[in-house]
Design brief:
With 235 residues, the chain is an alpha+beta fold. The chain has 6 helices and 11 strands. It has 2 domains: 120 residues, 4'-phosphopantetheinyl transferase domain (Ribosomal Protein L22, Chain A, Alpha-Beta Complex); 100 residues, Alpha-Beta Complex (Ribosomal Protein L22, Chain A). Helix 1 crosses helix 3 and helix 2 runs antiparallel to helix 3.
Length: 235
Amino acid sequence: MARADVVVVGLGLDPGRLARCAGVLDPEETDRAGRFLRAADRARFLASHAALRAVVGAALGRPAASLRFGRDADGRPFLAEPAGTGLDINLSHSGGVALVGLVRSARIGVDVEVRRPLPDALRIARGHFAQDEACALEALPPEAREAAFFALWTRKEAVVKALGAGLSLPLAAFSVSVPPAPPRMLRIAGEAAGWTLAAIEAGPGVCATAAVPAAGCTIRTTALPAGWADEFDAK
């Protein structure tokens, strides 16, 4: 039976800690960070990718800066060095929070969204989600729909990221449960067996989900301490 770990990371770092994060990234990551026009987006990228290194390095007993990552055609990260670990990874960030997902001998998808006002949530659901999901969302009291929409969105995105399907898998091609029901797969490729979904507690006003295409997977949630970036040497 697979066991996955999801680590919640706070991204609100002071300039000194952000500089430590920048110091452990490789040239490709540094180049990508430099392409962001907004300082807030650049800082979020630096912190989240340094956090990925911190979490994976701790799991493998390796220095964060020694790791090498690649990206597949859909932009999904994978661990290139050290190779042969059997470790699958995933990363998501929104606002001031990130999730890092890890699992061995399986795949994992994680997604996090900071809730915000979304008056057209029902219209978006009707246009992009499966019909049963949109109907379940519409059946909720109006005051509950917005939070349910964001939780539902993270459930679906986590599934897509676990599959590594990117835009090739329409969100209407499968169904997951709609809050307040616990997260679970309802229908994908004609069946629902073989999946574990879990809601991740990532803070007030935040919705997050982890998905593993394996039945009965244990998904454990932890969090990095507030001073997590202090482990990096200042450069």
